[in-house]
Amino acid sequence: MRSIALITGVTGQDGSYLSEFLLSKGYEVHGIIRRSSVDYRERIAHLEGQPHFHLHYADMGDSMSLVKLVGKVQPTEIYNLAAQSHVQVSFDAPEFTADVDAVGVLRILEAVRTNHLEKTCKIYQASTSELYGKVEEVPQNEKTPFHPYSPYAVAKLYGFWIIKEYREAYDMFCCSGILFNHESERRGETFVTRKITLAAARIAQGKQDCLYLGNLDSLRDWGYAKDYVECMWLILQQDKPDDFVIATGVQHTVREFATLAFHYAGIELRWEGEGINEKGINVATGKVVVAVSEDFYRPTDVVNLWGDPTKARTQLGWNPQTTTFEQLVQIMVQHDMQKVAADHVASVMRTNLAEYLEKGVVK
Ligand code: NAP
Ligand code: GDD
User: Fold this and answer.
1) pTM exceeding 0.85
2) What share of the chain in percent tops pLDDT 90?
3) What integer pLDDT is reported at residue 361 of this predicted model?
């Protein structure tokens, strides 16, 4: 008998890596997708058509769709990864964020109860280091008090507590992974790391002049998404449901990330100025390639995330340093250098083809 996993957020960064991981373990994997007018299934396109990988339309805002789907799939494990996951966007769309990131968790739990699967279906909730927000201690572990500091974090706090509540009230196997930032070559392009690696590649190849960022002093504990999905699975394989901090235990600033990313793209940076006037200068050319823009400042910003992964290391047997910070940045830059070059070739070919068509050279 194959284990059956249902993944919400399957089209996202983590959903795509988790799907690959579970398929490699012999799972039957079902994922929830939403209707969209554009193609957003790039990250899982290579899995579509595999015999044990199935996609279904549903939405975290639509209880009936979730109840029906859970009844149809009869999952043994649910990974609830779906979320409006961008912190800055949560200030612009706080109600939508609360509906998906907070009430959405409740909808999943109730879909499991409605289908009487509470004794057979384990649930993983994608919780977040953003719960620590305006941090009360460093590094942060499972006992550190929460102080959410954005509409996103407040919504995720509800998700964390409702998972805990259903665990205690109904004896359900519900767990939260309190994951610190994890990145990859599949990271959304508006998160700071991917924004930097893509811009470094474009600037190195003469496709962009300058990268505009917000708070360069912000500190994050950045890991590799591919390593982190294994923890989601390990958390559900424990004898008892529990919550775990997943982090590398190493902290860097946004400025340090940018310096290293530009280095791997072949540009050495020198930093000058302070605050809004700070600039990253290309040492070889003297040109400003990084500048600060207030557009990327947040009304409240979380500036000191640093995780203590001791519990995950000792209880789950997980190695937080599988991929180092330097390796992560290098993987992302290498990928984006190739992507920018390939996009350039594709655009030259499109231009040539358009010219040939116009001249009647090809039909
Ligand atoms: P992501 O790339 O932004 O993916 C989010 C996923 O949620 C996408 O598949 C998206 O679908 C789906 N989704 C959003 N609204 C939905 C709705 N109403 N109904 C159904 N699906 C919906 O995020 P990620 O980086 O993979 O993160 C996965 C989860 O971990 C999220 O819950 C995030 O908050 C949490 N988390 C992430 C990190 C991190 O550093 N990456 C750290 C801690 C916690 P579409 O493709 O259709 O938009
Ligand atoms: N996005 C972005 N864009 N962030 C910037 C920029 C910029 O131009 N400039 C500076 N930053 C700073 C932000 O202010 C923040 O302090 C830090 O870089 C990281 O921002 P993001 O990469 O957007 O990630 P995040 O930490 O806010 O949220 C991510 O990690 C959380 C876990 O801690 C998301 O993946 C969340 O879903 C996740 O819960």
Assistant:
1) yes
2) 93
3) 65
* Ligand 2 midpoint to CA 58 (Å): 28
At residue 344, the pLDDT reads: 81
Do the beta carbons of residue 70 and residue 112 sit within 8 Å? yes
Averaged confidence pLDDT in the chain: 96
- In the residue annotation, 300 being an active-site residue is answered as no
130 labelled catalytic: yes
Dihedral angle of Cα 310, 312, 313, 315, to the nearest 10 degrees: 110
